[in-house]
Amino acid sequence: MIESTTARSGNVLISGAGLAGPALAFWLHRFGFSATVVERAPGLREGGQAVDFRGAAHLQMLTRMGLLDEIRELRTPGGRLNVIDADGRTLASLPPEFTGGDVEIQRGDLAQLLFDKTEAYTEYVFGDSITGLTDTDEGVHVTFEHGAPRTFDLVIGADGLHSNVRKLTFGDESRFLTQSGYYVAIFNAPNTIDLGDDTVLYNEPGVGVMAYGTRSGDECEVMCLFESAPIDYDHRDIDQQKRILADVMAGVGWRTQTLMRELESATSFYFDSISVVEMDRYSQGRIALIGDAGYGATCGGMGAGMSLISAYVLAAELAAADGDHRAAFARYEEQIRGYATACQKVAKGAGPFLAPPTAKKLGQRNRMYKVLTFGPLSGLLAWISTRAANAIDVSRYESVPERVRATS
């Protein structure tokens, strides 16, 4: 049962029901604000890649949310990352904590957990999207594709790499999205290749195929990465995206073709360029961006941790400023920018790291893996994998009083 100890007049519209949106709704409620979440999709997105949390900042935040134990109960099997050749022989192997951090969970499981935590006190509107934002001294007047116009005190874009709120407020995404020259696709498939707890990564020049089992054991997640010039495609046309992936992966070795035969029937599918969002500011007037919408990276930038951390920081700053969005947004940007930059530095190398473009660079990367897991250098590997996640101190917000108390 949730017991409210105070009321707060501030009402906030959040665009996006992925991870950052529900996390922000959680913290806004705890700090005495009310939230409405609008999501274009008809429901929560299931499946998706495994996401991890690592380091003190992540764990402190999850502990304060009361989520850490529940995430541990839903954690993925874990295991090493084994780089393999076309015959399945291991060429190099990285420890579980490098890829899975302190705790790892499927993205869909985490999204469901956050939704379950917040649905009792959050208005969720699925199957709708924002079409217009008019920022005034009294609030933000919002029009929707289907719903009636409404006015909110604040609007927060938590709507991902291709943020609609960012486009409406700051301009076309081409001004802010920097592509890396790589694309990534993720889909679910039956575990017909007998994957155990370990993750396997097979490479050919400019191509990577990663597969890992899920908690159920009878299904796996497949991640495909490939180097490419910019591709012109519709972000909402999944059939077109599947055709692009099938064409690129045709002829790739190991057991890739066995996995690709399951692509057409996959119930969970994601496809996008590996890109980084770079902006001079994350807010304008009564409108602000969090997570991938403001400083995202498609993969490799600890996006789940970033989403939850940014939601925590923004809500805490609003509470500390007693709802004064001007002061809160300025402090939020000051606190989050360095952290976002540190995470993005890791993400910018994700494509070449997971799918080196040449045979020579493939060999160099595999030799580097072996060196980093040998003897005293294994500590360096752990440091590399957690330093960006720890580039913020969230303990400063433990003194911000919560206005809603959670009771059992």
TrEMBL record:
- Name of protein: 2-polyprenyl-6-methoxyphenol hydroxylase
Cross-referenced Pfam families: FAD_binding_3
Which superkingdom is the protein from?
Bacteria
Q: Where is the signal peptide?
A: none
Q: Which GO terms describe its molecular function?
A: FAD binding
Q: Which InterPro entries match?
A: FAD-bd (IPR002938), FAD/NAD-bd_sf (IPR036188), FAD_aromatic-hydroxylase (IPR051704)
Matches recorded under SUPFAM superfamilies: FAD/NAD(P)-binding domain
Database matches in PANTHER family: MONOOXYGENASE, OXIDOREDUCTASE-RELATED
User: Which residue range or ranges hold the FAD-binding domain?
Assistant: 11-323
